[in-house]
# Entry
Amino acid sequence: MRKSPRHRSGPGTQRSVYQIKVILLHSRPPIWRQLQLESSVTLDRLHDTLQMVMGWTNSHLHGFRLPQPSQRGTRRRLLPIESADEKATRLDELLRRPKHWLVYDYDFGDSWEHEVLLEEIRPRPSSTRLPMVLAGRGACPPEDVGGLPGYYHFLEAIKDPNHPEHEDMLEWAGRDFDPAAFDVQEVNRAFHGGWGRRRPDA
# Structure
């Protein structure tokens, strides 16, 4: 297991804003969010942020993985960060310049993998309220749907009134489920209401 790095000074360690893009890997069409947050946010707080911005309910375990430099002829490895380190490890210790990235895993059964990509580093204006969602696309899949294969099966079922599971799936997920829906302002209102809504990790 990877130990948390010692803090080092660098472009992300001062009072800065990180603009990141969070992409649900392998989703088609892509499900993604773009947001700004404190560069010094710890990984446990980043977990809270990602849960809310994506739309998950924090009902499962999670983890972070960081890419390691690859040697010639070998694939780049992703090493896990120990869960005990999340309260002590800051995002700007891991993502130090634009194009750096890490992976956020949620629900090890359904295996939702998210790429967290640093797009820009900006000075923080004193009036900025963070986190702040800038844009996004696509609804969060329902919890326990069975990963991306299960989600695609679910979408086929709810779109086809003749599908044998059509009614069951609509009843399970809610008849108002819209796979294209994402409301930036709704998530920002939830953020500005404060932390602590989805803290327990089961």
